[in-house]
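Q: What structure does this chain adopt?
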Amino acid sequence: MRRLFIIRKDLNLHAGKLAAMVGHCAEGYWLNLFKFFASIGCAKDNEFTTLPVETEDDPDYWMRYRHPLVAAAAKEAHDKGEKYFLFPEEEPRKTVSLALEIPKDIWFEYINDIFTKTICEAKNLNHLMKVVDIAKELGLNEGVDYGFIDDVCKTDLTPEFTDENGVGRCRVGIWFKPLPDEISHKLSKKYQLYKD
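A:
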């Protein structure tokens, strides 16, 4: 099992920029995984506790809170039509707990084994994007199994497109989640190892 990263060679990235882009590739899968589980309610802000405004049996549950600050927060949430509200913990921790699931093969054959990474080069943007067709043929999904590294062009690179937020970007590379070697080899077959 290995991670595969493909970086454009035509951009002539200097060593520091190349290292930063490979770092983004390495983080890409994990950050998408964390954000996905946070988006489905698996993240808890440990600085606050979640309290109900109403319950199945009592739609006016918010009126039961006796501590003046809790009661005021409950009333405010009720007035906004919310079902829950956050209230600071007595001993807050400035952390977030995240519950997530990791596929067993990634757990045993990547995280608890050797985390092999292969960095290949693409001649240009068109060559880079050809791997997307191969990935789709293999049943891989964008944002889950692979993703793009699009630089915001604040230093070395020139924007090649504008994203949905109006920010100029340059597509530098593609990351893949940990994949079985045979899948990685099918993806990287038309790419050479990145050379200086």
